[in-house]
Design goal:
This protein is mainly alpha-helical. Helix content is 44%, strand content 7%. It contains 3 helices and 2 strands, in the order αββαα. It is extended and about 55 Å long.
């Protein structure tokens, strides 16, 4: 999805034959819808009025957030950090063995 300098390729304005633009756009659309649902659940949907699916000149899907307030960006960064911390905590917790619960008690 990036050009050789590591910058996102230019948005597709003039479509070229043999490039699967629809596939890339549909991938971006599904991701944008999923993000919009989560933002709506958090009451942040109005902070991202420019959220939309797009495609670049190579047919790679893009999700555009649009211009957002600095406070909205800071809140999203905080939510991501919290999510990663919770994921790390849950992965480090020992899992209870379900095998012991399934075994029949031994007669003594």
């Amino acid at each position: 999805m990036t050009d050789r300098r590591g910058v996102i390729a230019k948005r597709a304005e003039d479509l070229l034959p043999d490039i699967p633009y629809v596939r890339g756009w549909m991938h971006a659309r599904r991701a944008a819808v999923a993000l919009a649902e989560q933002l709506r659940a958090l009451g942040l949907d109005s902070d991202f009025p420019g959220l939309t699916a797009d495609v670049n000149v190579r047919g790679d899907g893009l999700v555009r957030l649009g211009a957002i307030r600095p406070e909205a960006a800071a809140l999203v960064a905080e939510l991501i950090t919290t999510g990663f911390a919770e994921k790390a905590r849950s992965e480090s917790r020992p899992q209870a063995s379900t095998d012991a619960a399934c075994e029949e008690p031994s007669a003594a």
